[in-house]
Design brief:
- This protein folds into four domains: 2-95 and 215-294, Rossmann fold (3-Layer(aba) Sandwich), CATH 3.40.50; 114-194, no CATH class; 304-395; 397-480, no CATH class.
- The chain contains 18 helices and 19 strands.
- It has helices at 37-45, 53-57, 114-121, 133-144, 158-164, 188-209, 229-246, 257-260, 287-294, 311-323, 340-352, 374-380, 397-407, 411-420, 427-437, 447-459, 464-478, 480-496, and strands spanning 2-10, 13-21, 25-31, 64-70, 73-80, 83-88, 96-100, 128-130, 153-156, 171-174, 180-182, 216-221, 248-254, 268-273, 279-282, 304-308, 332-336, 361-367, 390-392.
- The strands form four sheets. Strands 7-12-13-3-14-15 form a six-stranded mixed sheet, sandwiched between helices. Strands 2-1-4-5-6 form a five-stranded antiparallel sheet.
- Helix 13 (397-407) packs across helix 16 (447-459) and helix 15 (427-437) crosses helix 16.
- It is globular, with a radius of gyration of 26 Å.
Length: 497
Amino acid sequence: MELVMHIRNVKSIKDITFSLPLEKGLYAITGENASGKSTLVACASCVFFRMPMNEYFGKPSGVASIEFTLGEATRKWEFSDNKWQGSSSQKKMSLSGFYEGSVIFGNRFKDTNFNALRVLDNIKPEDMVEADEFVRSNLGLILHNDSAYYSKLYSIKEPVKRELRLAGHPYFYQVDDGKFISQARMSTGENLLITILHSLNLRRYNKLKFDDGRPFIVFLDEIELALHASSLRRLLLFLRQISDEMNAAIFFSTHSLELIRDIKAQNIFYLDRQLDGSIMITNPCYPAYATRNLYSDDGYGNDAVIFVEDDLAKCILERVLIEKDLINNIRIKILPTGGWTNTLVMAHDVISSKLLLRGTKVIVVLDKDIQSQVPDFMSKHKECKHIEPDYLPVSSLEKYLKQKLVDQVDTTLYRKLDNYVFQGRPLSSVLSKYKTEADISADNDGKKLYGFLINELRSIRKDREELVEVVVKHLMETDQGLIDALAEYLSRKIADT
């Protein structure tokens, strides 16, 4: 089932029809600046949100309209005779949701004028109540990967909010010296995210308690503002969980590559403004296609692109480049591709398709343990014969973990992972489950073990980056010979670029 929206003469959008899927999942609306993303999202929210139309859309010249169709039901906003008017078909449109708008029109900066700031600065502790666990823990998880980080987060009591006539629902954070900082004086990322979490929590409570089966839609505009790349990844994980929990379709406008690249092509809508002012919507849209115009420097404007097999190799090379100070006046992009055959084929495809700018050097680095297999692969895939791979003197992440946790236990690495990563079940329990349920003798590449480890991480809302970080740190501390060899290799490759 789809919700069909037809917009005519609203701000920069002259005429466009947009079909919004209602199935649960994450949907990205992307495009260059001024392509109409924010206007489209704001218009879509009119399906259930009775917003102040003049404030959001102004007074168009001539007739304007936003019309929705869902099955036999219709809903319409129309501007004529110098005013906006709403109308609906006799058959009611059955759906619900909420909208969090941009910096200008959203709720995220409602209480940031000078008068409101003075009021908030004078709020007393007795006017506050402990923030809901949902807001408190998820704020910490998304921003710091620590659910307890904002344990001293409070919100204003509802009667006090009404008495002070505050537009939003402000929160307060108690710092170490006992003072309270209002939401308006927190960092931009904290401020924006708190408001989104607060709104989600309210709708989540009602949805779970009074679910009437209606489709639920969430519209979020510019959600990546002031958020670090790692926070964006955790935000995406959080939104996926919310989508599953609430059976919700979550639409967000974004410029962020971190968000776009993890959305499937069928769920990406790319807005492209044409020379005549019309807007073309591309869907499905693959992340690389969307980002080619959004990011001239991501994979397209680098001096060198290094293709590697996995996150471990990527993280090792990045760490060596930084610690050995090898990236002065040069731009290098490291791309994990997943498996050594994929790496070779991807490098070939990128070179032959001329995806990179002229002069960009392509470097292929594979894991050392598969070096003997490469010649046979090259003989069968002659299109890759121009690729000259180098080799990383370390196993793949999967093999390395099996070697260090099963075959010949490295107690130092084991303790680091048990103490800092696997904080739900002990690592020993995960390994016992693996030994009981998997055929260890057949797990030469360590992929089965890796599957067990990743499943455990997901159960405690962590991602593989944390696992990789600990492994890399361990390598850096224990294998200086490896690090020196890599530094020499990278220095040589950079000099040849």
